[in-house]
Amino acid sequence: MTTHVIGAGIAGLAAALALAEAGRPVVLHESAPNAGGRCRALPDGTDNGTHALLGANTAALGLLRRIGALEGWVEPEPGGLPVLDLRDHRAFRVALSPLGWRDAALRPPGLTGRALLALARLAVPGRDRAVGAAMAAHPEFHRGFVDPLVIAALNTPSAEASANRLGAVLRRLGGRGATRLLVARSGLGPDLVVPALAALERAGATIRFGARLRRLVTQGGRVQALDFGEDAVALGAGDAVVLATPPWESQRLLPHLETPLAYAPIVNLHYAHPNPGPVRFIGMLEALCQWVLVRPAGVSVTVSAGDAAAREEAATLGPRAWAELREAALAFGLAGDWPEAAPPCRVVKERRATPRHAPGPPLRPPRLPLANLALAGDWTDPVLPATIEASVRSGEAAARALMR
Fold it and tell me: Which residues form a coiled coil (predicted)?
């Protein structure tokens, strides 16, 4: 009764681990030479993005706990998120929890009672509409707090982002410690992917890299074989498959599967700039840079919903982002040297990073499109946006569906 997991992104890793821990024989197949999917580490060890978790991400944190990696995640800004607003070059801190807004020094720009009520209304499920329209009466609060939250969580501009998807995020932020911001101290490779692979090996799973699934051989509503080109794997009566591939790959393998129609890009910039200080995390407004992650090994910048940045040449992106993040580093007194000249920079553009989460009925792909095949992937969650949390939840849900 072997389960074959196709795809070693976060959803595939979560599914494989849940199955292996339940005593099921597992074979994990990955087309790339390494694991992690869109959360992969780059060849030099840096992350592809400033990935962060919140305390509300219980599934992701639970996975980290089970693989023994939770200690590698740190809270870089417990005193409130540092923010630099390039509109007026003001540096300030913002509490991520509304409870922290009782301190006037930690309130987001434009906060009023009416603005807070408008945000609370977004947490109530109802007729879906764009977040930008819902917050139009509170432009400063929207600009300084809601829009950055939407772009970070939904990777979709507020003008077209689903209020119901944002509401699902907001409803999860009310618990104790739910807004704690955590980042991987060394990177997603050493602090998530490598420990997950080690946990799978301890559980007896087999891992195959460089194995791209060409097609699913199906008959009678079941998968009969996996065609990898040079070799094929025949499935026995009790064998099963978890398909944890990107939506376009899933649709290639299951042509009748409904998948997202539009995607949003993310642009990441990684600077070879070692820093002697602790891990730091800074937000920026009215800037190309949205999030700046400073680690001892280097500095990374993420531009979510980055349609314009994805069209810009890397030769201009690197110096432009460096000038902004340098101003932020100096404004908050970050340790180390911050020269005017930009250090070497690697620019990574993911043009289909996530679905565009627009208003309207969400996709509800079947968890079991075939009797012995379960779907996984952040895009399969009909409630949460496509995030690490949604990836883990979907992988564990696929495992449960097959074990039932």
Answer: none
pLDDT digits (tens, 9 = 90+) for 104-138: 999 999 999 999 999 999 999 989 999 999 999 99
Tell me if 3-47+188-261+359-403 shares its fold with 75-97+180-186+263-355. Answer: no
Q: How many CB atoms within 10 Å of residue 253?
A: 20
CA–CA gap between residue 329 and residue 206 (Å, rounded): 45
Query: Residue 96 and residue 106: Cα distance in Å, rounded?
Result: 9
The CA-atom distances, in angstroms, between 200 and each of 61, 193, 207, 395 are 17, 11, 8, 14
β-sheet with 26-30: strand ranges across: 206-209, 26-30, 3-6, 240-243, 373-375
Q: Which CATH class is domain 75-97+180-186+263-355?
A: alpha beta
Strand partners for 208: 29
CATH class of this structure's domain 3-47+188-261+359-403? alpha beta
CA distance 70 to 280: 18
Antiparallel, parallel or unpaired: β 222-227 and 280-285: unpaired
Would you kindly state where each structural domain of the chain is located, as residue ranges?
3-47+188-261+359-403, 75-97+180-186+263-355, 98-172
What is the residue-wise DSSP string for 106-140? GPPTT--HHHHHHHHHHTS--S--BHHHHTTT-HH
- State how beta strands 206-209 and 26-30 pair: parallel
State the pTM of this model: 0.96
Query: Tell me, what's the pLDDT at 203?
Result: 97
Reported confidence tier of residue 41, pLDDT bands at 50, 70, 90: low
